[in-house]
Design a protein that fits this description.
The complex is a heterodimer of chains A (about 270) and B (about 350). Helices cover about 75% and strands about 5% of the residues of chain A. With about 270 residues, chain A is mainly α. Chain A has 2 domains: about 1-40, no CATH class; about 50-265, MetI-like fold (Orthogonal Bundle), CATH 1.10.3720. A two-stranded antiparallel sheet of chain A has the order 1-2. In chain A, a hairpin with a 1-residue loop joins β1 (about 30-35) and β2 (about 35-40). Chain A starts with a helix and ends in a 9-residue tail after the last helix. Chain B folds into 2 domains: about 5-230, P-loop containing nucleotide triphosphate hydrolases (Rossmann fold, 3-Layer(aba) Sandwich); about 240-345, Nucleic acid-binding proteins (OB fold (Dihydrolipoamide Acetyltransferase, E2P), Beta Barrel). Chain B has 8 helices and 20 strands. In chain B, the strands form 4 sheets. In chain B, strands 6-7-8-3-9-10 form a 6-stranded mixed beta sheet, with helices on both faces. In chain B, β16 (about 290-300) and β17 (about 305-310) form a beta hairpin. In chain B, α3 packs across α4 (about 140-150). The chains are: A mainly alpha (about 270), B alpha+beta (about 350). Chains A and B meet through α8 and α9 of A and β6 and α2 of B.
């Protein structure tokens, strides 16, 4: 009985902060207000108009590129972390410390560094009589922002899984004739897949929905799906269409998670 | 040194300034079943890991068939290991675990199948090849670990406390099976354990280690009957270790009582350690001129009684088949050949 009562706060929490908002998005998404509120899939269809659909595809593309870059950087780093005990503190410090700062602040910091005219980078380049670079307002700046902000979410789950591999299993591979490379391909890589999958999930999801990074580092010139949703809510005050766009995005995320989970049938990811 | 398969020469190894192995030398002959025996921290596992190639000694050389292999990585040695906690690959099924080494050797698929079947048969796990590792019991996992090692037909098999995690009954069965396996395959086994009974049961050679030094190496009978020092005597089986004085050849004095023994060559009046096994002490009715004491405890142990007697200021442990009343007086007698004299260290 006690156990039942103990669960109540969590159930209440879930109802108030997860189920009700989701239900409201669903209701807003499939209704329109033309004098009276009524059921309609008009907004859902509108979400597939080229202007919005292109933004959606662009978001998927940028999020994919960022995820891949994060993976390429994070995997070797996580490997080094697991192998060299004394490197652990330093590297965790370097990559986790920035997470203690506000997300907006970190992105603004990149803005000050990269700004075309008065940015730190270009000031230095000009001082050295080198050509300046124009990166703010380009897709590269957005991807840079995504990689920088979400990299820790890739490193930690991979490191977590790698450090849990039984060292004797690795020795056994050596013992049975595997060279370092063979051991990596046949033992380490397959055993780390759950971590890679949760890393991908935890980078891809915030990357596909972010609106702050394109707004700041893309100078508002490049719209991702997150920006369009934000605009519907705070500029056009069209909550119905904003909710429809959110629904479409949610379905796309759910589908991609479903595909990922197929790769990891054991579901041992468990991330952070 | 012709027929020694593995030779350790003056091996030393430290971890964090702590000396784990102190100039160890050891010869392992072909087809031998060698057990490294000692308390935890004595360096037995480190010795095994040096033979396996997982550690490099700070000093000294490892020879394999008279060739130096000290710096060779494990994957270039014709030696396989059975790890303490099995260390099976959790992402592979039974077949792929056992086939791991063979696949690396790029063996033909049908040959791999044949060899895996052979190995599974050998460890009594026929038809288990498609099982998931997680579905197997500890004993079964251990058999797979053994099969995974022997399928590669190594010249030497290293076993690091392979039965440590199993319950007593299973451990006894596996001891017997391992011994059989070794006879059948003719592979040299080097086995690490802290269980002296296991060591005596299975091995043809027992190497007793303590504090990074080999205390004694020899056949189980020799180690048990002729321990070279008090540590070995104490570690192998139960024993009463008593300080005595050699009065002359074949005559030792214990607690001011003379005992006839068979050991010669000690100095006159030299202080020695004397080992007497509990089953070698004869209890008599109290007699004058004999070492006499009081029974302090008598415990029934099934096959025998474990009797404790306080005599000469020392508590003696005695195994015999008669029960004694606690508090009664008894005299102690020992046959000359059962008194083992060792130099004091």
């Amino acid at each position: 009985m006690l156990r039942k009562w103990l669960a109540t706060p969590y159930i209440l929490w879930a109802i108030i902060f997860t189920i009700i908002p989701l239900a409201m998005i669903l209701i807003y998404g499939v209704t329109i207000d033309d004098g009276g509120i009524r059921f309609s899939l008009e907004n859902i269809m509108k979400a597939f108009d080229p202007i919005y659909f292109k933004a959606l595809l662009r978001s998927i593309y940028y999020a994919l590129i960022s995820t891949i870059i994060c993976l390429i950087i994070a995997y070797p780093l996580a490997l080094i972390l697991t192998e060299k005990r004394n490197a652990k503190v330093t590297v965790i410090f370097i990559f986790v410390l920035p997470m203690w700062m506000n997300f907006l602040l970190r992105t603004y910091a990149w803005l000050t560094i990269l700004e075309t005219n008065n940015g730190f980078l270009n000031t230095v380049l000009r001082f050295l009589h080198l050509p300046t670079i124009q990166i703010i307002g380009t897709p590269n700046a957005i991807i840079l922002g995504m990689v920088y902000n979400f990299l820790p979410f890739m490193i930690l789950p991979i490191y977590n899984v790698l450090s849990k591999i039984d060292p004797y299993v690795l020795e056994a591979a050596f013992d049975l004739g595997a060279s370092k490379l063979t051991r990596f391909v046949k033992v380490i890589l397959p055993l780390s897949i759950p971590g890679v999958i949760s890393g991908i999930t935890m980078v891809f999801m915030p990357a596909i929905t972010t609106f702050v990074i394109p707004k700041l580092l893309g100078s508002g010139k490049i719209n991702l799906i997150g920006n369009l949703i934000e605009q519907q809510f705070v500029q056009s005050y069209n909550w119905y269409f904003g909710a429809s766009l959110s629904l479409v995005l949610m379905v796309i995320i759910l589908i991609s998670m479903g595909i990922l989970n197929r790769v990891d049938p054991s579901r041992e990811g468990g991330a952070l | 040194m012709k027929n020694s398969l593995i030779r350790l020469e003056n091996i030393s190894k430290s971890f964090d300034d702590e000396l784990i192995l102190n100039h160890i030398s050891l010869d392992v002959k072909k087809n031998d079943f060698v057990t490294l025996l000692g308390p935890s921290g004595c360096g037995k596992t480190t010795t095994l890991r040096i033979i396996g190639g997982f550690e490099t000694p700070d000093d000294g050389q490892v020879y394999f068939n008279d060739k130096v292999i000290t710096q060779k990585p494990p994957y270039k040695r014709n030696i396989n290991t059975v790890f303490q906690k099995y260390a099976l690959f959790p992402h592979y099924n039974v077949f792929d675990n056992i086939a791991f080494g063979l696949k690396i050797k790029k063996m033909h698929h049908s040959d791999i199948k044949k060899k895996v079947d052979w190995a599974l048969n050998l460890v009594n796990l026929k038809n288990f090849e498609n099982r998931n590792i997680h579905q197997m019991s500890g004993g079964q996992q251990q058999r797979i670990a053994i099969a995974r090692a022997i399928v590669n037909e190594p010249e030497v098999l290293l076993l690091d406390e392979p039965l440590g995690a199993l319950d007593l009954k299973l451990r006894k069965d596996m001891q017997y099976e391992l011994k059989e396996l070794q006879r059948e395959l003719g592979i040299t086994f080097i086995y690490v354990t802290h269980d002296q009974e296991e060591a005596l049961t299975m091995s043809s050679t027992v190497v007793v280690m303590n504090d990074g030094v080999i205390q004694q190496a020899g056949s189980p009978e020799m180690i048990y009957n002729e321990p070279t020092n008090a540590f070995v005597a104490d570690f192998i089986g139960e024993s009463n270790i008593i300080s005595g004085v050699m009065r002359k050849d074949c005559f030792v004095e214990l607690f001011n009582h003379g005992f006839v023994c068979v050991d010669k060559g000690f100095g006159i009046n030299e202080a020695v350690d004397v080992v007497i096994r509990p089953e070698d002490v004869i209890l008599l009715k109290p007699e004058k001129d004999k070492l006499t004491g009081k029974v302090t405890d008598c415990i029934f142990k099934g096959v025998h009684y474990e009797t404790y007697v306080e005599a000469g200021g020392k508590e003696w442990m005695i195994h015999n088949t008669k029960s004694h009343i606690i508090g009664s007086d008894v005299s102690i007698d020992i046959a000359p050949e059962n008194i083992h004299i060792m130099k004091k260290r």
